[in-house]
Specification:
Layout: E1 4-11, E2 17-21, H1 31-38, H2 42-48, E3 56-57, H3 58-68, H4 80-88, H5 91-105, H6 109-142, E4 147-155, E5 162-170, E6 179-182, E7 191-203, H7 205-208, E8 214-216, E9 234-235, E10 240-252, H8 258-266, H9 274-305, H10 308-322, H11 327-344, E11 347-349, H12 354-360, E12 363-366, E13 378-384, H13 391-403, H14 410-416, H15 420-425, H16 427-430, E14 431-437, E15 445-452, E16 457-463, H17 465-471, E17 472-477, E18 480-483, H18 489-501, E19 504-514, E20 530-539, H19 544-555, E21 559-563, H20 568-577, E22 585-587, H21 588-592, H22 596-605, E23 608-610, H23 614-626, E24 631-634, H24 641-646, E25 649-653, H25 658-663, E26 666-668, H26 673-714, H27 722-735, H28 757-785, H29 794-816, H30 830-845, H31 850-854, H32 864-890
Parallel strand pairs: 3-4, 12-21, 12-24, 17-20, 21-23, 22-23, 24-25, 25-26
Antiparallel strand pairs: 1-2, 4-5, 4-6, 6-10, 7-8, 7-9, 7-10, 11-26, 13-20, 14-15, 15-16, 16-19, 17-18, 19-20
Helix pairs in contact: 4-6, 5-6, 5-10, 6-11, 6-27, 9-10, 9-26, 10-27, 11-26, 12-26, 13-14, 18-20, 22-23, 26-28, 26-29, 27-29, 27-30, 28-29, 28-32, 29-30, 29-32
């Protein structure tokens, strides 16, 4: 699309980045069709779109699918060729390729081959792991399917007649011509022309950036409307139903939709997460460091040795030694392994990079129902306004829940569990539904209008107490209808408050007779002058595991805050039962009247927030984020979608409404804080192993620079030939490939961790010189003990430092991977032990091998190895001592 502007957030559904779009009339190829369909009468749209008022036959749907393909838009699903190209083209490989070309052009064939081998190994490992991880991620995503309700015709068994039936199918199977049934909470799965609608409000923020929902109707458009997004009777793929109900005819699916045309132009252009930024900052830190140090090494060697070509080749090898070639592969393997481990803990990762944010999360905002409570709501009481049991209250509540077609929540399910009422009320014989006024989060109520067999029309409404009291002018006491003004309203309200204090969720039920002549077209304006009938009270006890899970999260540095639309009394009871501080509760009305500064101050200290609207939840999440917290939000409802998108990591559950699942980064297959806590720990393990590699590489490379500079200035020959240095670096890089399979100390998991580039730089500057110190000890031993002082003895000197340098670099893996004493208090995983031991053995063997002799190395005298052991032991002891001092002084991130 022209003039497509990336939004900072939110991400839209279907894996497509959100965009603010200013479409020009000529940019969308289906514009003419949409305008024609929108301006046609409802009855004419079926012919235009080759459909049927009763829905498509399954055979017709298959033909359409074969013609138009699956209902999927452009996403970051890459072909293997693209993945291979991405693995090849990164700053490190480009640099290595340039250096290999330079080596080849200067007849350093061995150096060019070694550099080429490094590129091949890096690219191969990165490609294999990214390919595997992308396939694994796709498999995990398929475990969380978004579905839609369609109307299709099929033949009954042994009959010729066709019947129209509702089917729930994956959105990928929807085709042009399908009839789609919509209700609150649904993601709109294709571009639709509305056929029927009832109080339908749709959020189009993913398309337009406007947060206010727009009303949609099935009335044909006038010819004056020219912009596609302004069509009132067209709903667009990727938007979502906020309230109301509708049926629509699919006009276009997949890449042919309006969203599909946008997605094809922006796919792959994701906003960088803090994780991406951290990796990139480190990579460029090392490259900038190299650009400063390498010319210095080149000049020192050129001046002291007089051979500028040799100095240049050596500087090239030094440059390679500073490049963290394995970083892309290490990151990819860690994230993929973490995603698979989390899936075994019933946590599905939709975006790999969200794993780090999951581990770094230090504030978790969660809803109440189903997370802190058992999510098994039971209708316990049905009382009249005086608090006495009353069956009529239950019967009217049952009629209301039975006839509503919108999103049935757990309260409706609990009411409908009284199935005996269906027979007792003779619903199908006595009652006929005329209309409904759907639920929305502003009114916090919903109504149905029914006609009894005696032609009496009744509007039955149920909803939140405060909202219901506003629209009731009378109350039923016994069988008498009395003006509310003549009754002790405070006493009635206290009955509900007492139930709230006992943990009950209370809903009011009201009704009124309406004029029999009004057969249809009821609206919110009819919800007035109602008769309050009574209350229905539900109980959703706290989960036994919630207290334990919250304690564990607190122990791991995650503060839990409750953000709910429920009333404060029920919320306070549940919060206290699970161990949260609910002495002070902030209500939605108070949030609304706060400035940003006041809200930021409040959210830092308050744990429980109640009576919140969706936008207020989002404001609280953003306020916490602005204070520097890494915020997770766990929710499963329509009203949670804005907060899910605003959070650093959005978390939902498999049985959530479509919009919540599509807004989330991570899906829990079980709505439990215990499951979530296990996922947090796994995220911290992933981050811990990535940081290990970065600290090892940074400190080792920094130390090598000090060693190279000193040796270059003092020795009459090169401390190591370029090809020797490249071989050493290649072996060291291979030893790091097992880091993703390493264990992480429990104390590292006790609090959230996030990128601290300053801390990494401090670590590099502190531990790098320690390795240089023992390099200089090695130089002294080779110079004074083994008399490697002349160009004739340079091979012995180079062989000795080759082995010591490789072994010390490999040992540092075990020293830095833990804050404990390595090998004694904390042992690496067996894959890492095997890999490092193997590389150390190869490093010792190389000078004795034919390959070693071909690159200028010579067998080392056996007398050298006791010195080598002493140097390595001393290095490990000093590193451990200084590590403990460093941890006390700066901590250990």
């Amino acid at each position: 699309m022209n003039e497509t502007i990336r939004a900072k957030e939110p991400r839209s559904g279907f894996g497509v980045p959100s965009v603010f779009t200013k479409p020009k009339q000529t940019t969308y190829k289906n514009r003419a069709l949409y305008l024609q369909v929108a301006q046609s009468k409802t009855s004419e749209t079926f012919a235009l779109l080759q459909s049927n008022p009763q829905g498509l036959l399954e055979e017709e749907a298959e033909e359409q699918r074969a013609k138009y393909g699956p209902n999927a838009i452009a996403q970051d699903r890459m072909r293997w060729e693209t993945q291979l190209r991405r693995a090849l083209i990164n700053p490190f490989n480009i640099l290595l390729g340039i250096l290999a070309g330079v080596s080849y052009s200067t007849n350093d064939i061995k150096g060019a081959i070694t550099l080429g081998a490094m590129v091949v190994i890096s690219v191969t490992l990165t490609f294999i792991q990214e390919f595997r991880s992308s396939r694994a991620a796709e498999g995990l995503k398929k475990m969380v399917q978004t579905r839609a309700t369609v109307l299709r015709r099929r033949k009954e068994e042994d009959k010729e007649d066709l019947i129209c039936q509702k089917h729930e199918i994956p959105i990928e199977e929807i085709v042009p011509g399908d009839l789609i049934v919509l209700s609150a909470g649904d993601m709109i799965p294709a571009d639709l022309r509305l056929l029927t609608s009832k109080d339908l409000f749709v959020s189009q923020s993913a398309m337009t950036g406007e947060s206010i929902p727009v009303e949609k109707t099935n009335i044909e458009e006038s010819a004056a409307t020219k912009e596609v997004l302004e069509l009132k009777n067209v709903c667009f793929m990727g938007t979502n139903v906020v309230s109301g109900t509708a049926t629509g005819l699919a006009m276009r699916t997949g890449g042919e939709t309006f969203l599909g045309s946008i997605a094809s132009s922006v796919v792959g252009a994701r906003v960088q997460t803090s994780f991406d930024k951290g990796v990139n900052r480190f990579a460029w830190l090392m490259i900038r460091f190299m650009l400063v140090m390498v010319p210095f090494v080149f000049i020192v060697n050129g001046v002291t040795k007089g051979d500028w070509m040799e100095a240049f080749l050596f500087a090239v090898a030094v440059a390679v030694g500073l490049v963290p070639e394995m970083l892309p592969m290490i990151v990819t393997v860690n994230l993929a392994k973490g995603a698979m481990s989390m899936s075994r803990k019933r946590v599905i990762v939709k975006r790999l990079n969200s794993i780090q944010n999951f581990g770094a999360m230090n504030v978790l905002c969660t809803d109440k129902t189903g997370t802190l409570t058992q999510d098994k709501i039971v209708l316990e009481k049905y009382l009249d306004v005086s608090g006495a049991p009353n069956d009529r209250v239950l019967k009217y509540a049952y009629l209301n829940s039975y006839y509503q077609t919108g999103l049935k929540n757990l309260l409706d399910v609990a009411v409908l569990n009284h199935r005996e009422l269906s027979k007792e009320l003779e619903i199908d014989r006595i009652y006929t539904k005329l209309d409904e006024i759907p639920f929305d989060f502003t009114r916090k109520r919903m109504s149905v209008v029914v006609e009894k067999s005696n032609k009496r029309h009744i509007l039955i409404c149920k909803g939140a107490l405060e909202e219901m009291f506003k629209i009731c002018s009378h109350a039923e006491v016994g069988r008498q209808v009395v003006p509310i003004s003549d009754l002790p309203v405070a006493q009635f309200q206290k009955i509900a408050q007492d139930l709230n204090d006992d943990g009950f969720r209370v809903i009011a039920v009201a009704y009124k007779d309406v004029e029999a002549s009004r057969r249809a077209d009821y609206s919110v304006s009819d919800e007035k002058d109602l008769i309050l009938l009574g209350y229905i009270a539900f109980l959703d006890p706290p989960k036994d595991s919630a207290t334990q899970a919250i304690a564990k999260l607190h122990m791991h540095g995650v503060n839990v805050k409750v953000l709910t639309g429920d009333n404060d009394r029920v919320t306070r009871k549940v919060a206290r039962d699970v161990g949260l501080n609910a002495d002070e509760i902030l209500l939605g009305g108070q949030v609304e009247n706060m400035t940003e500064a006041e809200l930021c101050k409040a959210v830092e200290k308050i744990t429980v927030f109640a009576k919140l609207t969706p936008s207020q939840k989002e404001r609280i999440v953003r306020a916490l984020n602005s204070l520097g917290h890494v915020v997770g939000f766990l929710g499963d409802g329509i009203n949670d979608a804005p907060a899910l998108r605003a959070a650093d990591v959005g978390i939902s559950v498999d049985n959530a409404v479509d919009i919540a699942k599509e807004s989330a980064d991570i899906i829990l297959l079980e709505k439990s804080l215990l499951v979530l806590e296990e996922g947090v720990i796994e995220g911290r393990k992933v981050f811990g192993n990535i940081i290990k590699y970065i600290k090892m590489g940074a400190s080792s490379n920094f130390g090598n620079m000090f060693s190279m500079l000193g040796a270059s200035a003092m020795l009459p020959f090169l401390p190591m030939q370029p090809v020797q240095l490249l071989t050493q670096n290649l072996l060291y890089d291979i030893s790091q490939t097992a880091i993703p399979f390493d264990d992480v100390d429990p104390e590292y998991l006790d609090r959230p961790r996030k990128w601290e580039i300053g801390e990494i730089g401090r670590f590099m500057a502190f531990f790098g010189p320690i390795s240089s110190l023992f390099d200089y000890v090695t130089f002294s031993v080779l110079w004074f003990v083994f008399k490697a002082q002349t160009p004739a003895m340079e091979s012995l000197f180079q062989s000795g430092w080759f082995v010591e340098g490789l072994l010390s670099q490999t040992l540092i893996v075990h020293m830095i991977r833990t804050r404990r004493i390595p090998f004694i208090q904390s042992r690496a995983s067996w894959p890492l032990i095997f890999m490092t031991a193997t590389i150390m053995a190869i490093g010792i063997y190389v000078p004795f091998s034919l390959y070693g002799s071909s690159i200028g190395l010579v067998p080392l005298p056996w007398e050298y190895f006791p010195w080598l052991i002493g140097i390595l032991v001393g290095y490990c002891i000093l590193t451990q001592v200084m590590k403990e001092w460093f941890i006390k002084r700066y901590g250990y991130n």
